[in-house]
Automatic annotation (TrEMBL):
Family statement: Belongs to the IF-3 family.
Keyword Protein biosynthesis (UniProt): yes
Domain Translation initiation factor 3 C-terminal, chain residue ranges per copy: 204-278
Entry's Gene Ontology cellular component terms: mitochondrion
Gene3D superfamilies (UniProt xref): Translation initiation factor 3 (IF-3), C-terminal domain
Transmembrane segments annotated in the record for this chain: none
Superkingdom of origin: Eukaryota
GO biological-process terms attached to the record: mitochondrial translational initiation; ribosome disassembly
Keywords, comma-separated and alphabetical: Initiation factor, Protein biosynthesis
Protein name, UniProt field: Translation initiation factor 3 C-terminal domain-containing protein
Residue ranges of coiled coil: none
Molecular-function GO term, any one: translation initiation factor activity
Species in which this protein is naturally found: Coccidioides immitis RMSCC 3703
Amino acid sequence: MVRTEVEKPTGSFARRQNQTRTVARKVQQKKRIDLVSHLIYQFTLLLFKATMTHTPPVFSAAQALRSAFLPRIQTHARRPVTGSLNVYKLKRLNHSERQPLQHRFGARAQQIPWPKIPTTPSLKAPRDEAIRHQRVHIVEEDGSIGPAIPLRQVLGRFDRTEYSLVELISPSENYGSICKIMSKRTLREQEYARSRTSKPKPAKQIELNWAIDPNDLENRLNQMESFIAKGKKVELILTSKARKRKATEPEAQKTLAAVKEKIQEIGAIQSKKMQGRLLGHVQFFLEGKK
């Protein structure tokens, strides 16, 4: 009987086997580490989602373990929870911002015989908390008027730094206080325009000496005509000046006649009657035709 001897592995072959076993152990160890890391990620994501939504978690622990062992799971491809919440919040903000400020206060009021709404409020119109009525109607951007709503609710619905609630019409038996949300910049511009138009323009004053030279008199009367043509009021004064030659009565009468003739020539209107006496202090209050 022939015995066959099994060839023992040589030294190099044994080393290769040991290296192969070492690599296999490292691969298995790496898989276990990856598995634990994936489980930690699943539980962390589950906890974070439950915290953000204030609702019980959707995934159970069994589902998390099952997903960990499934190959090529698409968990990493899901959108982050924070991103979806931000998108939803942004959409809600955009929806409210597209609405006009006045449309947030409810439906349109029923048909009421509304008065004519002024385009600009009066200078003494109450604003914001100065409005004494607890319920107000809001004039919308298209001119329609909404139902009566609490004043406190209105004041909390717009930016108080940029806008102001202004009362346009006081309440009556048929309706409450009618107000409008207006830009503070627009209100300042309206007040400035009113202040400029409400102030009376000062009259141009022209002073003549009774003994004025005929050429100087003609120039001053032409200046008066220019002011009247521009729509300005003129106060013409005839008086005796100190350190000047005093005119005789005929000279004074001639000067006065020249002034009256010029007034009649240019068609100026005397807003007041002539005041004063000859060789004294005489005043003419003149303005153009309206």
